[in-house]
Amino acid sequence: MSPVLSGVLQLTALVAALVLVYRPLGDYMARVYSSEKHLRVEKLIYRSIGANPNAEMRWPAYLRGILAFSAASLLFLYLLQRIQGILPHSLSLGFTAISPDQAFNTAASFVANTNWQSYSGEQAMGHAVQTLGLAVQNFVSAAVGMAVAVALVRGFARARTGELGNFWSDLVRGTIRILIPISVIGAVVLVACGAIQNFAGIHDIGQLAGGTQQVNGGAVASQEAIKELGTNGGGYFNANSAHPFENPNAFTNLFEIFLILVIPFSLTRTFGKLVGNVKQGYAILAAMGVIWLGFTALMMWTEFHHGGAALQAAGGALEGKEQRFGIGGTSIFATSTTLTSTGAVDGFHSSFTGFGGGIALLGMMLGEIAPGGVGSGLYGMLVMAIIAVFIAGLMVGRTPEYLGKKIGTREIKLAACYILITPTLVLGFTAVSMVMATPPHSILNVAGNSVDGSGAHGFSEVLYAFTSGANNNGSAMAGLNANTQWYNTTIGLAMLLGRFLPMVFVLALAGSLAEQKPVPETAGTLRTEKPLFAGLLVGAILIITGLTYFPALALGPMAEGLS
Amino acid sequence: MNNSVRSTARLAGAGLRALLVLTLVCGVIYPLVVTGIAQVAFHDKANGSEVKVGGKSVGSERLGQSYTLDEKDKAGNPLPDPKFFQGRPSAAGPNTENTQYKLLVSGASNLAADSKVLLDSVQQRRADVAAFNGVSPSAVPTDALTASGSGLDPDISPEYARLQADRVAKANHLPEDEVHKLVDDHTDGRILGFMGEERVNVLQLNVALRKLAKG
Fold it and tell me: Which pLDDT value is given to residue A448?
């Protein structure tokens, strides 16, 4: 069997598995967020929070809940890293306190569901920070994203009210009823295939030819499962999902990709259920699926084609890739991780072909909506749907509507603010970093080291870093040394602003939609459950992103890929 | 004013309590439950899949390791031991300290596809591997020329293993066809016939080889 055919078959198997769970999981999540009943353990949690889970919140109250919870998370995670040096050895593994700028960056990163890492896990973080800090944020930051998505969906589904549900209830239910059960299953599958799960420290084991090798212990499988399922992406180890202890074989590789994609895709079913028309969910799913499949096919094509002088000389694009996954499996992982807000990697994007790196970049630049992060993918895509109906409305001269709600001036302003945030952060910070004196020194692949003396790849490293941060992805062209005060601070800010500012606009939008009374459907209403609309949506996404980022992409990956 | 201060404080308190109780659930109970299941049901795998020969640990099946001599080349790197099958090159880029599978840090070279540094090392590796194994440079497969993502890749391609078989046989005074058969026996196909690539686990192969040589 050729490697190309193997790649195509793996993609087919993945799609089949996603199709299989789409309806049951999507329907289950719809029930989780609309059920009247509270589980006993949930009641206990509400009592200790001191919150009434039945109290309806308007959008400002919902937002305040998110901000209060996230601020507490940020502070807790920062302090946990800063006190690592005084924790007992069994909890710290002897690692010292993380420096203030790196601790800020890491706290911002995990609270913002980004998992950008300017540290090497095995060299910096002990059991306490990994398990009590980072892994906890993997759960709750994902649950926050899902809560915001559900609040927006309620905005469409409800009428003549401003109420969007209860944040504490959505947070706790997402964690307890969705993320934890799937993670337990996922973690056990990973251990069964060879991922490690223990609390041993760093120890030496013998080697066959003599000498010893250092080996880590850790609660790796349990963290790995939620890292993928919650589209977080922060590796226990520096090599992330390329490390054999995180991702032991080709099956776990495919399984981890499945965990990344399963909630974002299935949430479109949840959305359809909650707005009372599953076909609306299918249209959104179709737009997501077309982009994801298209990107994956392109990635496979360019990686199998292995352009670039060094890869041509090696006879294949295997630099930074593992033998057991091969090029096909690594390509599927790369597009799935960058089209969601995951950022886990099983191969290193910096050593991909020029175009391959560009496809990963563009995936993040789309705003990670195909299918996007858990929750954030759905709300990002619904904002784009609002833009698409607006464009369609302009073409025929009608007031645009979506799901029975009028898209008026206020809604369009909020949607426009939403889509302007990340490009501003990405392009602004990249430009400033390139013109300053010191930040460019962090670049690994400098102009003098490339075959034709071009600095295109070096520019891509910086552009990639801010794109990844502001879009809450977390993957990197890891040649860039990002552990400097400048990058720790600016990427930290980009992650926080890129996560929470869009949420403000999404919740305001949800509140405004929930207050409206529904407009009756007429013969002139744009049928948003039809393929025509899905096509329009894909077109709108590609054009808006393409125009925004084209100049930057031309300077980086396109220049490298075409040379 | 007083009211809004009080309500902010109340909200911040709720946020903190929510975090603490969820930390207990997701950061203590969840990993302990998973560790409990893992240690009971998959004890060896959960602890790193160590391979033992005669009761002595010789490494982890999941991690690549180095098979080198005490002598060093001009650059100060230990020379490969001809008696063993060799793994893939381990990334030695400026951004990672994981040279030759020795240190704790995992990682890749992160060198670009159009990097002159990478081009030079690919050409160097091609010449080195060809000379070491006494084969033509054009016969050296890609996995022998490129560093992996983790720097700890436990596997090589069957082509690279076969290419090394004659040299290994000679160094161990074994018949060539026996060593080739050993490689075939240790070649793992794709999982379920289509997932990933064919591969040879270098440690398992070398363990079997040593057994054969001592036979």
Answer: 86
Side chain identity, residue B109: S
Question: What is the interface pTM, i.e. ipTM, of the complex?
Answer: 0.95
B177, B81: one domain: yes
What are the structure tokens assigned to B109, written together? 């070279």
**Is there a contact between A205 and B48 if contact means CB atoms under 8 Å apart?**
yes
> For chain B, what is the domain count?
2
pLDDT tens digit sequence for B155-199: 999 999 999 999 999 999 999 999 999 999 999 999 999 999 999
CB distance A449–B115 less than 8 Å?
yes
Please give the mean pLDDT across all residues of chain B. 91
Residue-wise pLDDT tens digits, B96-134: 434 556 556 788 889 999 999 999 999 999 999 999 999
What is the C-alpha to C-alpha distance for residues A91 and A219, in angstroms, rounded to an integer? 12
Amino acid at A549: Y
Query: A445 and chain B: CB distance < 8 Å anywhere?
Result: yes
B61 pLDDT above the threshold of 80: yes
Chain B: residue whose CA lies nearest to A143: B22
Domain limits at B21?
A: 2-46
Residue B70 has pLDDT above 90, yes or no: no
Using a CB-CB distance cutoff of 8 angstroms, which residues of chain B are in contact with residue A132?
23, 27-28
Say what the pLDDT of residue B92 is.
Answer: 45
Q: Which residues from B are below 8 Å from A208, CB to CB?
A: 53, 58-59, 65, 67, 84, 203, 206-207, 210
Strands A212-215 vs A203-206: parallel, antiparallel or unpaired:
antiparallel
User: In angstroms, rounded to a whole number, what is the distance separating the alpha carbons of residues A15 and A119?
Assistant: 34
A343 within 8 A of A475, measured Cβ to Cβ: yes
Q: Is residue B134 left, alpha or beta, with left meaning phi > 0 and alpha meaning psi from -120 to 50?
A: left
Quote the minimal CA–CA distance from A22 to chain B in Å: 23
Instruction: List, in sequence order, the alpha helices (H) in chain B.
Output: 2-23, 30-41, 43-46, 116-133, 158-171, 176-185, 202-214
Pair (B108, B177) in one structural domain? yes
Q: Is the domain of B28 the same as that of B82?
A: no
Q: What letters, b where the CB count within 10 A reaches 16 and e where it falls short, cover B81-120? A: bbbbbbbbbbbebebbbbbbbbbbbbbbbbbbbbbbbbbe
Q: Directed axis angle between helix A250-274 and helix A180-192, to 10°?
A: 160
The tens digit of pLDDT for each residue in A421-474 reads 999 999 999 999 999 999 999 999 898 889 888 899 999 999 999 999 999 999
All structural domains of chain A with their residue ranges:
373-562
Backbone torsions φ then ψ of A520, nearest 5 degrees? -65, 145
B40 and B71 co-located in one domain:
no
> What was the pLDDT predicted at B100?
57
Q: pLDDT exceeding 90 applies to what percent of chain A?
A: 89
| Residues in chain A where the model's pLDDT stays below 70 | none
B94/A188 CB distance under 8 A: no
For residue A246, the surrounding DSSP H or E stretch is none
Alpha carbon A174 to chain centroid, angstroms: 17
Same domain, yes or no: B60 and B102:
yes
Cα A432 to Cα A552: distance, rounded to the nearest angstrom: 13
Q: Nearest CA of chain B to the CA of A499: how many Å?
A: 18
* B65/A479 Cα distance (integer angstroms): 24
